[in-house]
Amino acid sequence: MTSPAPPNALEPSLPRYGARSLGEVLPSLLRALGLAGFANSIAIEPAARACLLLVDGLGWELLRANRTSAPFLNAIARDPLTAGFPATTAASLSSLATGLPPGEHGLVGYTMALPGYDRAFNALTWSLYGLGPRVDLREEVVPEAFQPQPTLPERAAAGGVPIHYLGPAFHKGSGLSRAIGRGQRFHPAESLEAIQEAALRQLDAQPAMVYGYYSRLDAAGHIHGVASQAWRDELAVDHAVRILAEQLPDGTVLVVTGDHGMVDLRPNERLDLADHPELAAGVGLLAGEARARFVRTVKGATADVVSAWRSILGDRMWVWTRDEAIATGIFGPRVSDQVRERSGDVVAAAFSRVGIVQRDVDPAQARLNGHHGSLTPAEQLVPLCVYRS
Which of 8, 115, 130, 378 is the most buried (most CB within 10 A)? Predict the structure, then answer.
């Protein structure tokens, strides 16, 4: 028997799958361009061209708290969207590209517990995670089979409107791109200036759809924290977006969003399994990330792990068995068998200032200041900023 959750535990707010989440962004833009078969759930007005910019790490609460540093984005902001669980890049970009919740597309974390592997799987690098040899898994874990659902770029291309993706050069041919970006046309663009220039070139056509990805805000948040001047300096993306907006051809809708928010954790709020043997007991593999953990337990230890984690962390984290987590709906209304395998035996999500790290596996992550992944508004809510030229 697992021990019940503490009676004072907060109930999680579920992501707004199917109504107002990241999965509704591309279908709404494609419908606004006139493509049949897509639902415009977030009410984007009809347009001849569409430009989507995803700023990694741009959370809604962070944007609103920094209005003087981001006046343009705040001026064009509508009601926010939800990212989905976990609120992390791999899951969010997959929802954006497929229109599906994580429970269906299967990219349920930054790292995942895959059957047959004693190290976690890193979805961003498509390799084994943590200390040890870098093992590229693109041949063993074939991306097209790992995420077999049709992508929105494939559907858009079939409808006559290819999606031009602008992002870092290493995204081309990566495992994640093969899993979720099938059908898009790739253009390397590392900087904001490169994204601007490439977007304007591709928007010459009519109809046209461009999707740009920018990551430096997220990196600054992880390393320096979202309360840092370094993070606020990266909000210069606001100026770049305004310059882009001013140059867009007539009849273009520009949408800017993020993939998750972020919260800062002080060193004493980052609990390392190496320092807490009572949390490490029965843990065979730790996946996910600091604020959204998937725990694969050793055989027969699931009930004990749940009991220990609830006893120690229940005032700061939701702790569920896998089946309990799925029943809450945090992964979406439907959950595949693959997701059940990839989410381990125990799911823990932070609602207070805490994160679980493992310096013996990833010493760099254990030192990071900014973290995300859970169901709090600070992590879940992302902007929906809309501008029409």
Answer: 378
Cα distance from N-terminal residue to C-terminal residue, the chain: 60
CA distance 153 to 242: 26
**Residue 11: pLDDT band by 50, 70, 90 thresholds?**
confident
What does the DSSP 8-state code read for residue 131? S
**Please, which pLDDT band fits residue 7 given cuts at 50, 70 and 90?**
very low
- The one-character DSSP state at 266 is -
Report yes or no: 40 and 27 within 8 Å, Cβ to Cβ.
Answer: yes
DSSP state of 136: B
The SS3 call for residue 265 is coil
pLDDT for residue 10: 75
CA distance 69 to 229: 11
Helix (H) or strand (E) holding 198: helix 192-202
Tokens 């004493």 correspond to what residue?
268
Q: Which among 167, 278, 267 is positioned nearest to 216, based on CA atoms? A: 167
pLDDT tens sequence across 217-226: 999 999 999 9
Taking CA atoms, 71 is separated from 191, 226, 261, 387, in Å, by 21, 18, 18, 13
Q: How far apart are CA 311 and CA 198, in angstroms?
A: 53
Structure tokens at 239: 């100026």
Q: Are 39 and 27 in contact (CB under 8 A)?
A: yes
Closest by CA to 165, choosing from 211, 216, 106, is 211
* Residue matched to tokens 């253009």: 187
pLDDT at 1 over 80: no
Q: At what angle do helices 192-202 and 237-247 cross, to 10 degrees?
A: 20
pLDDT grade for 3, boundaries at 50, 70 and 90: very low
The model's pTM: 0.96
Whether the CB-CB separation of 60 and 67 falls below 8 Å is answered with: no
- Please enumerate in sequence order all residues whose Cβ is within 8 A of that of 229, keeping only pairs 6 or more positions apart, or say none: none
Residues 6+ apart with CB under 8 A from 131: 360, 361, 362, 363
What does the DSSP assignment read for 27-53?
HHHHHHTT-TT---TT-PPP-SEEEEE
370-375-379 Cα angle (round to 5): 35
Quick one: pLDDT at residue 289? 97
Q: Cα–Cα distance between 232 and 224 in angstroms, integer?
A: 10
